[in-house]
Amino acid sequence: MHESIMEQLWQTSHLQGGNLAYVEQLFETYLTDPNAIPEEWRSYFDKLPGVEGNTRDIAHSTIRAQFEHISRNQRSYSGAGVPASVTTDADRKQIRVLQMINAFRFRGHQEARLDPLGVWQRPPVEDLDPAFHELSDADRDLEFQTGSLNFGSERMKLGDIIDNLRKTYCSSIGAEYMHVVDTRIKRWFQQRMEPVRSKPAYEAKTRKHLLERLTAAEGLEKYLGSRYPGVKRFGLEGGESLIPCLDELIQRAGSCGAKEIVLGMAHRGRLNVLVNTLGKNPKDLFDEFEGKKLQDSGSGDVKYHQGFSSNVMTEGGEVHLALAFNPSHLEIVSPVVVGSVRARQTRRSDNDGSSVVPIIMHGDAAFAGQGVVMETFQMSQTRGFGVGGTIHLVINNQVGFTTSRQEDARSTEYCTDVAKMVQAPILHVNADDPEAVLFVTQMAMDYRNEFKRDVVIDLVCYRRRGHNEADEPSATQPVMYEQVRKLKSTRHLYASQLVKEGVITDEESKQMETEYRDALDKGDHVVKSLVKQPNKDLYVDWSPYLGHEWTAKCKTSVSLKNVQRLGKKMTYVPEGFQVQRQVSKIVEDRNKMTAGALSLNWGYGEMMAYASLLDEGHPIRLTGQDVGRGTFSHRHAVLHNQKNGDTWTSLANLSEDQPLFEIYDSLLSEEAVMAFEYGYATTAPKSLIVWEAQFGDFANGAQVVIDQFLTSGEHKWGRLCGLTLLLPHGYEGQGPEHSSARLERFLQMCAEHNIQVCVPTTPSQVFHMLRRQVKRPLRKPLVAITPKSLLRHKEATSDLDDLTSGTFQTILPEKEPSDPKKVTRLILCSGKVYYDLLEKKKADSRDDVVIVRIEQLYPFPGDDLDELLAPYTKLKHTVWCQEEPMNQGAWYSSQHHMRAALHRLNPKLYLAYAGRDPSAAPAAGYMSTHVEQQKKLVNDAFEI
């Protein structure tokens, strides 16, 4: 819209001579009575960005000067006519009028006609009664100053003020915006709603398009209901206004310059959105209903979990739409969508969120009930996770499964009240008033574009069917469904209104229905704006990562010259930057490591992996609750100036043309942040995306993400993801909550090469592991069980040569293993316990024992283990040793792999277990108990 109107203005010389005065007059009229100007001009003026409060800035300076002058004059109404002192009864009444106006702005929504069913029982709001403000019927004909009201007149009769306030704030729209502390935002909503009384005059073309979208929404549900009766589809009946709402959001976003829109939603209405918004071919949907297999591999998923992507044409050009796949954990898709949006914005260098827009559709019960909604809102304005605002669209059925009583469903007045935590405006609207829905939709998108913050549309509708089409809702909601049975559909009500007003004829209305049904019968696409030959530049290219085996090779070593060059840059500190004393020692030690004067520790190996990947053109994003420093003070990727608190990140300053390095200490969230990073990783295949847990077991808080997305997303949806999880793990006597990353849970979910589970034990191993994650032409989630005490262990070191040669070793022998001819005992292990075992072996001079580390537990490297074990032909005893209790750790999930390898070596070998006894808790809470258990399991490994 912006470009097309500006082209009209300049290319057709509309602003030459007397035409400029015409445009000025249009704008002045718009400021006082928007309904009095053509809809196209009103829409254009609505979308103008604000400058210094209330002014509107048009891109060309001549018009800007004129418009700002007009707007400054208009702004002078604010507070006009309010006397400095109150001395008369008239003055007191005037103040009461202003207080009443404020009450309507604050609480008008509580008396708005929002419920299509009319079953809401809401007590009257005393603040909205003129009598509360000591104003009587006798005062209705008296004139009062209107203060900051945007009703187009500085003085109005009290009766007119009250009537217009009720039209604006108590009709089909209930706007909550007065909780926002920013005065500019409050004025913005007042200027949008009050001049048109929340009911703008739409042209016949717009109203016909609304009806056409409602016809499509209702038509699909009727068609599916008759063709597949009783089949579960989570239909949109009762909420059909969602389709015109989405249509306007997409078209308006596109007209404002958006190039991509990422959508998320749960089940209800999903099939309708797929067909009527994203342009999925109805024939493909019908094939799914008929049970046809539509993908060559994997398990697939049910219809109402499926994602989709397409391109549509808008007034501002072609826009790519992407609907995220979503499991039945309804709200977990919200941070996934936002993460995907952030990745797309990063790819486009879209720093303010203008080019990529997130739209998330929610159910009312889930929005109020699921904590990840709060976590997602809390991320919205942070540095590492902001996306310039999200449009939240609540499909408010007024019931969650069978829970509808407010005292059971939530503790707040509205299901949307959680959004107030970030001062998001909330626009409640009656879904049976399509023009009101259109108006709040336009306001929501314009608000997001103007202020770059979240906004909520609460689409108050109902569920004509039960929770699904096989459900009988009257069994639990008899009163509600008595009303539902009586109620005509939204489409029927609106069509009747348009016929009555002469906008269309009854024949035209019926023709719309017939044409839509015919298109479905033919299996035609029903989205007129669908781009049949889409611009593929709008897509993310995953083709280089398809069809590779997990054993695909890649070079992960780095030349000594590059290691030394990057090592110097990695430890560079700007002149005058005062580093904290202990941190300064770490920086000095890293310089010695680069020079070969000191063995490499874990922090160096990890940091060098990042530096070398950046040097080779791979962006990196690292988030978690303490990632800048590292929970255990090993990383210090972000240095803090002790003089003024400034920060320095050397990895972001390796060279002028390096790719982006992002590192953010996240909010104290696991579920939303991990889901965000999953969404990001599914959209950024060339990048290394890392989420680190503060302690490994904290990943428990994100178990839904791990179960529903990370470990099964590829199998269900064909969705590739290279997200890396760093999960600190190790038994150091710190109790049950700070020991275990619950390795067993990840291993239990391993199948069909879905993820990688690695337990690196040396700096060079973490170096090669992280580099392999990006350099290998494969994108699988990596679960890295990382150390705590090993970060500084004297034996857990590497040399520069280990970085400049070799690769990640799935099976790792001792540095100086015993002579195979003397070895009769094999101890297999993984992780930190290796160093405890090695210490005992050296202390006892046991040259009859060899200790082998399995550094990659899944996919299990059977061939590599066979190769390493081949020389040990004298074995008599083989033991698996782990720190974790027997029912945890790797024992149950991996023993069959190890036994198979031993059987291939010698069928008579038996694999014994050395470790803690089965336990309900991950670890002991008493240090003395821990030490006793640790000593026993190490001894058992050598004796059992």
From TrEMBL:
<comment type="similarity">
    <text>Belongs to the alpha-ketoglutarate dehydrogenase family.</text>
</comment>
<dbReference type="GO" id="GO:0004591">
    <property type="term" value="F:oxoglutarate dehydrogenase (succinyl-transferring) activity"/>
</dbReference>
<protein>
    <recommendedName>
        <fullName>2-oxoglutarate dehydrogenase E1 component</fullName>
        <ecNumber>1.2.4.2</ecNumber>
    </recommendedName>
</protein>
<dbReference type="GO" id="GO:0030976">
    <property type="term" value="F:thiamine pyrophosphate binding"/>
</dbReference>
<feature type="domain" description="Transketolase-like pyrimidine-binding">
    <location>
        <begin position="600"/>
        <end position="793"/>
    </location>
</feature>
<keyword id="KW-0324">Glycolysis</keyword>
<dbReference type="InterPro" id="IPR029061">
    <property type="entry name" value="THDP-binding"/>
</dbReference>
<comment type="subunit">
    <text>Homodimer. Part of the 2-oxoglutarate dehydrogenase (OGDH) complex composed of E1 (2-oxoglutarate dehydrogenase), E2 (dihydrolipoamide succinyltransferase) and E3 (dihydrolipoamide dehydrogenase); the complex contains multiple copies of the three enzymatic components (E1, E2 and E3).</text>
</comment>
<dbReference type="InterPro" id="IPR001017">
    <property type="entry name" value="DH_E1"/>
</dbReference>
<dbReference type="InterPro" id="IPR032106">
    <property type="entry name" value="2-oxogl_dehyd_N"/>
</dbReference>
<dbReference type="Pfam" id="PF00676">
    <property type="entry name" value="E1_dh"/>
</dbReference>
<dbReference type="InterPro" id="IPR042179">
    <property type="entry name" value="KGD_C_sf"/>
</dbReference>
<dbReference type="Pfam" id="PF02779">
    <property type="entry name" value="Transket_pyr"/>
</dbReference>
<dbReference type="InterPro" id="IPR031717">
    <property type="entry name" value="ODO-1/KGD_C"/>
</dbReference>
<comment type="function">
    <text>E1 component of the 2-oxoglutarate dehydrogenase (OGDH) complex which catalyzes the decarboxylation of 2-oxoglutarate, the first step in the conversion of 2-oxoglutarate to succinyl-CoA and CO(2).</text>
</comment>
<dbReference type="InterPro" id="IPR011603">
    <property type="entry name" value="2oxoglutarate_DH_E1"/>
</dbReference>
<keyword id="KW-0786">Thiamine pyrophosphate</keyword>
<dbReference type="Pfam" id="PF16870">
    <property type="entry name" value="OxoGdeHyase_C"/>
</dbReference>
<dbReference type="GO" id="GO:0045252">
    <property type="term" value="C:oxoglutarate dehydrogenase complex"/>
</dbReference>
<dbReference type="GO" id="GO:0006096">
    <property type="term" value="P:glycolytic process"/>
</dbReference>
<dbReference type="GO" id="GO:0005829">
    <property type="term" value="C:cytosol"/>
</dbReference>
<keyword id="KW-0560">Oxidoreductase</keyword>
<dbReference type="Pfam" id="PF16078">
    <property type="entry name" value="2-oxogl_dehyd_N"/>
</dbReference>
<dbReference type="InterPro" id="IPR005475">
    <property type="entry name" value="Transketolase-like_Pyr-bd"/>
</dbReference>
<dbReference type="GO" id="GO:0006099">
    <property type="term" value="P:tricarboxylic acid cycle"/>
</dbReference>
